[in-house]
Write a structure and sequence with these properties.
By secondary structure, this protein is α+β, with helices and mostly antiparallel strands. It contains 6 helices and 5 strands; from the N terminus they run E-E-E-E-E-H-H-H-H-H-H. The chain has 2 domains: about 90 residues, no CATH class; about 180 residues, no CATH class. It has a 5-stranded antiparallel sheet, covered by helices on one side. A hairpin with a 2-residue loop joins strand 4 and strand 5.
Length: about 280
Amino acid sequence: MYLEFRTKKPRWIGVQRGGGLIGKYVQNRITFLIIEGENYLKIHTTSYPNSIKNMSADLQTSGLSVATITAISAFIGSSLGTFWKIYFDQSERSRKDNIEKKEIQYIELNLALHLSSFAKKSEERIFEIAEIISESEMYSKSPRTYSELEVNFPDETKWEKLPIKFVAELKLLIQNYKSTNQYIRLQFEQWADANDCYELDCQRLAFYALRTLEIAAKIFKELDAETAELSDLKLRLQGYIDEAVDNCNRSGNSQLLIPELSNRFRSSEKIKNTA
């Protein structure tokens, strides 16, 4: 005779090799089927303390031998004690897993909100830069400056709770966003005027706003949250990038695109050949 425990319902508690004692657990109830020759006794238990008392009376009137009753009583008592320990341990693990899952969902939600906020601010900054360039060209003066738009996350973010692949993707995105800013500054030192650099910065803002929106939208989808507003914002940002690429292609100057968009540049000669 041996004892087997499993975690998925229905759970078999006691399995006898070649007949004898069989136990089954379904929906918080344990059923023991005890067989001795032609005699058998089916015992249902619903709670550990009361089940022992009820079993004792049932066994006495079962017609089974004293030796069998003694062995069965010891076995069932031990089985029930072991079973309830495993059952409650599993329930506690399940409760802790649910708490952990909920905590991770809140962390992801907070990140998605910050990412989508950055994308919205990026669009606002693009409009602001467009006004600055327009003023500069209209009044033939140097464009006014503006502050750097940064991607920030709460200091209390528990990164160790999140999948390392996701964290790496997010932090690499931010690193590349900052690196492109350094690239634009270098162009200003080498050949570009302020308005050219402002145009490049608009491309940078639009490009990385789209990337952050993709990550935020994925998180919102996993959390079953609505993202219609973000979809509209994504279309507007993509439209700005497409327009910037088209303008650059018409001018034939690949320097007017940030490195992330350079693969979309086509010279005027190539455009004629594909027309």
